[in-house]
Amino acid sequence: MKKNIKIKFTGFWAGFDEQRNFFTEVLEKHYRVEISDAPDYIFCSVLGTPYEECNYEGIRIHFNGENYTPDFNIHDYGISYNNLKLEDRHLQFPLYLVAKKPLLLVSQKHLNVDAELLRSKSYFCNFVYGVSRDYREKAFEKFNTYKPVMSPGTGKNNMPNHPFVKTLDEKLDFLGKCKFTIAFDSTSLPGFATEKIMHAFAAQTIPIYFGEPKIGEHFNKKAFIDVADYDFDLDKVLERIKEIDQNDELYLSILREPVFKDENYIAKKQEEFEAFLVHIFSQDTDKAFRRSRIAGPKFHNERLLEYNKLIKSKLYRYLKKLLH
């Protein structure tokens, strides 16, 4: 008989489905899962009300795809980009391993690459960002000196008659019409790689990547352009882009390269993810706690609770509005 578990999700992104997601799909293979307001286990992220998870006394499992390291004073376990070693409390599992559809497309992206695919490319390159950052804008402007870089997003928009790319399907469809994709992450940190490079691969376009400095540990560097390989010199990057753009056989040969050095990489990481969760939930609840609930950590948690109450108060909202 499957064990009953009561869980809660706090702080996740808009549109996150509490009933059907990458956590519940794994857990339901082993347990009877109940979404509860009196949970024994809390999955926490950073996109909702800060420290909302501190309202719950159960076992806290932190997950996020941002440049954020879990606070192990208030969390028992963490899942993040970070290659952190902390006994059984942390798993490195980057955000790009979460979405099922892009993962499936990525595993097949180097197959069925031919001249017909190349003829389907309407645009040279794309720039799909809601918020532009200085280094992204520099790349956008530099590559524009060669051919137009198309931007249907809110950042650097130059396609006013094209609808904003909002959904994943819309994004993949648009990226697929482009030969290249500017796939710059928000920062460059070991282990920190997001969905940006994966979406480019899934759409069978060549990513021009900036971000994770050790991206070549798992990703096949023959399948994309890494700005770091050119000492972050955009002139050198553009010369490489021109070389590929002007040679159809070279372009297609790069598209035919698999994304990962190890063809079993995705499966192995998914197995690690499942094993990590099962280890947490297979223990007796009292034994699964890892954070300290006494002395300094207890006071830290109480201060965060008070902060959480403050930012939810009418007085705080009034003062914030007044100051704004």
What does this structure look like?
- This protein has twelve helices and eleven strands.
- With 324 residues, it is α/β, with parallel strands linked by helices.
- Strands 2-1-3-4-5-6 form a six-stranded parallel beta sheet, with helices on one face. Strands 8-7-9-10-11 form a five-stranded parallel beta sheet, sandwiched between helices.
- Strand 9, helix 6 and strand 10 (206-210) form a beta-alpha-beta unit.
- Helix 2 (100-108) packs across helix 6 (195-202).
Question: What is the first-to-last residue Cα distance?
Answer: 56 Å
Gyration radius over CA: 22 Å
Output the strand order for the largest sheet: 2-1-3-4-5-6
Q: Specify the structural class.
A: alpha/beta
Number of E-state strands: 11
Mean pLDDT: 92
The largest pleated sheet is described as: 6 strands, parallel
| Percentage of residues in helical conformation | 25-40%
**Uncertain regions: pLDDT < 50 for 5+ in a row?**
none
> How large is the count of helical segments?
12
Could you say which overall geometry the principal axes of the C-alpha atoms support? Answer: globular
The arrangement of helices and strands along the chain is EHEEEEEHHEHEHEHEEHHHHHH
Proportion of strand residues: 15-25%
